[in-house]
Amino acid sequence: MHPSELDLAAFQPLAGQLDDVVTMMRTISRTTKPEAFFREYVERIRQFYAVDRVLLLKHAPDNEHEVIVTEVTEWTRPRQLYEDDGIGIHLQTGLLLSLLEQGEPLILNDWEYDEDDPGTVLLAGMRSLRAVPLFENGETAQMIIGLKAEPEAFRPEELPGLVWLSNLFRHALQNLSLAEKLNNAYQSVDREMKSVGEIQRSLLPESFPEVYGLELSSYYETSQRAGGDYYDFFPLPDGNVGILIADVSGHGTPAAVVMAIMHTIAHTFQGPYDSPGVFLNYLNEHITDRYTNNSGTFVTAFYGVYNPHTGNFKYASAGHNPPLRRRCGATTVTKINKVGGMPLGVTRDIQYEEAEELLYPGDRVVLYTDGIVEAAAPDGELFGTGRLGEMIGNCDLTTSNIVDSVVAAVNKHTRTTAQSDDRTLVVMILRNGGAPVQLQ
Predict the structure, then answer these.
(1) How many whole angstroms separate alpha carbon 143 and alpha carbon 145?
(2) How far apart are CA 226 and CA 328, in angstroms?
(3) Gap between the Cα atoms of 342 and 48, Å rounded
(4) Who contacts 238 (Cβ-Cβ below 8 Å, separation ≥6)?
(5) What is the pLDDT of residues 262-280, one digit of tens each?
(6) How sure is the predictor about 62, in pLDDT bands with cuts at 50, 70 and 90?
(7) Average pLDDT, stretch 188-209?
(8) Which residues contact 39 (CB under 8 A, 6 or more apart)?
(9) What are the helix (H) ranges across 252-391?
(10) Among the listed residues 245, 357, 231, 369, the one whose alpha carbon sits nearest the alpha carbon of residue 306
């Protein structure tokens, strides 16, 4: 026989085994569900192991000197390959327990089982045995036993490949199941977060009061399903309106909870309604006493009361970004920041000062949270108050136009950078006298 023919003949068994391995690996790479992964393994294990019977040995959960034996063909759940559920035949002596305790790869050819062995029902009629240990944290956690009725059925050179392939499969299945559990947990949390976000958005104004000569628009976007930004409008006596914007430290559900608390407290305020400082004092006392004193949470806030008859805008600030004001046709932007104060929730013993700003027809005022001005480009450059101020200079724009322009500019600035903070805008434009302007 020609040498090449000898080589080809010798390769035929390996080629068949290689095909089995390649097929299994292709299936593994395509499978995302543990059940499908498991079914493929059970289907091929007899073919790949070339055996008449396959046993899985596991230590009993409460006794390391007891072995639990199951047949692979009787497995019903993927987790049986890596979890101890106690299901199977329990043995406290015999060959199978000894093999598991030794924890080493082993082949027994032309072997005869002891009829007194407690595992006789599993070993009867078998003449060849191959033991493949499965490792966990460096120790033998389980063992796959392959059995054949014919003697001298197993070749020692196949054993190393079986050891690594079996362990690869076990850990792949374990990781796939873990990934599925994590994904299910994420989906559950995401559904809850979505519900929290929906509840939170229901606390924001559904409609705004009509205010003489004032046009308003707003924008609200959380970085997660729920967030800590908050804005609100309060119709007050004599046609005045209170405008509140706030930003709870942190993100997600904890910030959303504090935001909801803020909403509740703000709507229990009984006056005096023309005093923004007293309003912030009220919020601060209640938040600090019951909710933020020991949590490290704080809230920045700006509250202003606008009188449409006089154009007076009385305000107080608790560490919040100062609103920007720009006259129609003006080239400069001013900040409404004559007074300030510590954020809400830091200390109870503080009184918030008030200041006044006289607004004129054509004035544009934008209130915002730091998620707008601190939105970062890929190179780290912040959007900044300069860009925001430029967006409110066009006298022909409505409040809705300004909101759309700012949002588009922020998105263009950040490009592929993930949103890391909540973003809120409230835009005011003072119009000339006449009927109240319908809010946007």
Answers:
(1) 6
(2) 36
(3) 71
(4) 307, 309
(5) 999 999 999 899 999 999 9
(6) confident
(7) 84
(8) none
(9) 252-266, 276-287, 370-373, 384-390
(10) 357
pLDDT at residue 64, rounded to an integer: 80
Residues 6+ apart with CB under 8 A from 237: 273
Closest of 433, 426, 374 to residue 245, by C-alpha? 426
Say what the pTM is. 0.69
3-state secondary structure of 123: helix
End-to-end CA distance of the chain: 92
**Long-range contacts of 39-47, Cβ-Cβ distance < 8 Å, separation of 24 or more:** 41/169, 41/173, 42/72, 42/73, 42/75, 44/20, 45/72, 46/72, 46/73, 47/20
With contact defined as beta carbons under 8 Å apart, do 89 and 59 qualify? no
Local confidence band at 438 (pLDDT 50, 70, 90 cut-offs): very low
Encoding tokens for residue 394?
């066009």
| Beta strands 241-248 and 299-306, pairing class | antiparallel
Q: What is the mean pLDDT of residues 187-202?
A: 83
Question: Residue 245 phi/psi, 5° resolution?
Answer: -135, 140
Write the DSSP string, 21-62.
HHHHHHHHHH--SHHHHHHHHHHHHHHHHT-SEEEEEEEETT
348-373 pLDDT per residue, tens: 889 999 999 999 999 999 999 999 99
Identify the CATH class of 12-182: alpha beta
Mean pLDDT to the nearest integer, 1-9: 49
Strands (E), 166-255: 214-221, 229-235, 241-248
Tell whether the model's pLDDT for residue 187 goes beyond 70. yes
The C-alpha atoms of residue 318 and residue 219 are separated, in whole angstroms, by 21
More confident residue, 129 or 191: 129
In the numeric block, the tokens 């200390």 are attached to 347
Cα 388 to Cα 403: distance, rounded to the nearest angstrom: 10
Residue range(s) occupied by CATH 3.30.450.40 in the chain: 12-182
Q: What are the residue ranges of CATH 3.60.40.10 in the chain? A: 203-430
Dist CA 298 CA 348 (whole Å): 12
- 203-430: CATH topology is Phosphatase 2c; domain 1 (3.60.40)
Determine the pLDDT at residue 210: 87
Give 247's strand partners. Answer: 229, 300
Q: Give the Cα separation of 47 and 41 in Å (integer).
A: 10
